[in-house]
TrEMBL record:
Keywords: Acyltransferase, Transferase
Lineage: Bacteria, Bacillati, Actinomycetota, Actinomycetes, Micromonosporales
InterPro entries, per database record: 3-ketoacyl-CoA_Thiolase (IPR050521), Thiolase (IPR002155), Thiolase-like (IPR016039), Thiolase_C (IPR020617), Thiolase_N (IPR020616)
Protein name: Acetyl-CoA C-acetyltransferase
UniProt keyword Transferase, yes or no: yes
Signal sequence, start to end: none
Gene Ontology CC entries for this record: cytosol
Active site, renumbered: 91, 387, 417
Gene Ontology molecular function terms on file: acyltransferase activity, transferring groups other than amino-acyl groups
Similarity comment: Belongs to the thiolase-like superfamily. Thiolase family.
Top-level taxon of origin: Bacteria
């Protein structure tokens, strides 16, 4: 059995995130992930090198994407003997890929690996309706002319040709992520003002980080885009307050709807990558160590039969991870909580402050308590940057590692909610 080794986060690279159906409308998952990987390879001089593994994924994938990570590696300047494969854990994909690579490095199974994620809602796969799809598949495998004619006869003009467009919805409830989050917002009494303030801060902080040049060595421009397109440095509480609610707007609680396009993350296209290695590998290759990857945890909630909110699993994963690591919620210099929706971040924080939740749901004697909000998403998060589902984890890992490197020492918490009632969390240290 190998001794567990320390895992270094060497750096990351992403492309600027674009609003859906705009700047990257003609680009595919492979194009976007390829661009993020090319930038990483160039930044860290990896051309021609055989990397232990590249692990990446996309939430929305075409069948033509096949093993997307491997296809992207074959199109890159990495040594083609680099193994690569896809994983999918909804919006936790990028972080889960990082955890997988980090764990293999820790166990001595890899010396260096790349984690990544990509999504483009502009190029989402469309499926034919089930009847038509099955008929066409049968037609394709028919062996005789007679058989072909018999099957073709079933293709009648009245056959519905309407495609099935992927919805941002939970298969078991039919509700969108936003509708689920709206229910959670009501349950935790998250008001509109608090959501809009969080959204405003996200834009202001992301804008300030760009001004400081924070992303200069974390991002490569792509197709002429140099900054996250969703960023609105000029937004204000007045503007945000004027937007009409878009989720939770029907039913008996419609009057209390608070979630708008401004305090919800937008549909986004983008990709990110992160380079991880053993500390020895980093030293041998004269590469910096921004931070160490130390702990991770996943959790799932039963939002189908139970009464827990769809996006509340991080509220469970974080305390479990803290218990394992022997830490409290206050032992962090930075908190990176993915802003799927402002209300979801605020509901998670409210749960950790609630004596009832912490006792009844987490089995704790005392609440986890509040966090210092000045340490939360200090360079903005998904409300401002956008949220290309599988790419968000890589964005956050690279951002947090660099924040820790700039600070010189410290500890950061990552928390990402994911569809299917899941949550993926991790700790970086320096
Ligand atoms: C998937 C997982 O596993 C877990 C998760 O992360 S869950 C989260 C997954 N993501 C989602 O569910 C995406 C949710 N978002 C959406 O569906 C859509 O973005 C949305 C329905 C909220 C809005 O869509 P839209 O109507 O096309 O937005 P958009 O046109 O950009 O904005 C509407 C208006 O608000 C304005 N606006 C938006 N943000 C603003 C801001 N920050 N400041 C000022 N104005 C703003 C826009 O300018 C626009 O105004 P006009 O109508 O005058 O042009």
């Amino acid at each position: 059995m190998q001794t567990v080794r320390r895992v270094a986060v060497i750096g990351g690279n992403r492309i600027p995130f674009a609003r859906s159906n705009s700047h990257y409308a003609r680009a595919s998952n492979a194009d976007l992930l390829g661009a993020a990987l090319d930038g990483l390879v160039a930044r860290f001089g990896l051309a021609g090198q055989r990397i232990g593994e590249v692990v990446a994924g996309a939430v929305l994938k075409h069948s033509r994407d096949f093993n997307l990570a491997r296809e992207v590696v074959l199109g890159s300047k990495l040594d083609p003997h680099t193994p690569a494969y896809d994983i999918q854990q909804a919006c936790g994909t990028g972080l889960e890929a990082t955890i997988l690579v980090a764990n293999k490095i820790a166990l001595g199974q890899l010396d260096v690996g790349i984690a990544g994620g990509v999504d483009t809602t502009s190029d989402a796969p469309l499926a034919l309706n089930e009847d038509l799809r099955r008929t066409l598949l049968q037609l394709n495998s028919a062996r005789t002319v007679g058989e072909r004619l018999r099957i073709a006869a079933r293709l009648r003009p009245h056959q519905p040709f309407k495609p099935e467009i992927p919805r941002n919805a939970e298969p078991r409830t039919g509700l969108s992520m936003g509708e689920h989050a709206a229910r959670t917002a009501l349950r935790w009494h998250i008001d509109r003002q608090a959501q809009d303030e969080l959204a405003l801060r996200s834009h202001q902080r992301l804008a300030a980080a760009y001004e400081k040049g924070f992303f200069d060595d974390l991002m490569t421009p792509y197709l002429g885009l140099t900054r996250d397109q969703n960023l609105r440095p000029d937004t204000s509480l007045e503007k945000l307050g004027s937007l009409r609610p878009v989720f939770g707007t029907s039913g008996p609680d419609a009057e209390q709807a608070t979630m708008t396009a401004g305090n919800s993350s937008p549909l986004t296209d983008g990709a990110s990558t992160v380079l991880l290695a053993s500390e020895e590998w980093a030293r041998e290759h004269h590469l910096p160590v921004l931070a160490r990857f130390s702990w991770s945890e996943t959790a799932a909630v039963d939002f189908v039969h139970g009464d827990e909110g769809l996006l509340m699993a991080p509220a469970y994963a974080v305390p479990r991870m803290l218990a394992r690591a022997g830490l409290t919620l206050r032992d962090f210099d930075f908190y990176e909580i993915h802003e799927a929706f402002a209300s979801q971040v605020l509901a998670t924080l409210a749960a950790w402050e609630s004596p009832e939740f912490c006792q009844e749901r987490l089995g704790l004697d005392a609440p986890l308590g509040p966090i210092d909000r000045d340490r939360l998403n200090v360079n903005g998060s998904s409300l401002a940057a956008g949220h290309p589902f599988a790419a968000t984890g890589g964005r956050i890992v690279a951002t947090l590692a660099k924040l820790l490197a700039e600070r010189g020492s410290g500890r950061g918490l990552i928390s990402i909610c994911a569809a299917g009632g899941q949550g993926v969390t991790a700790i970086l240290e320096r």
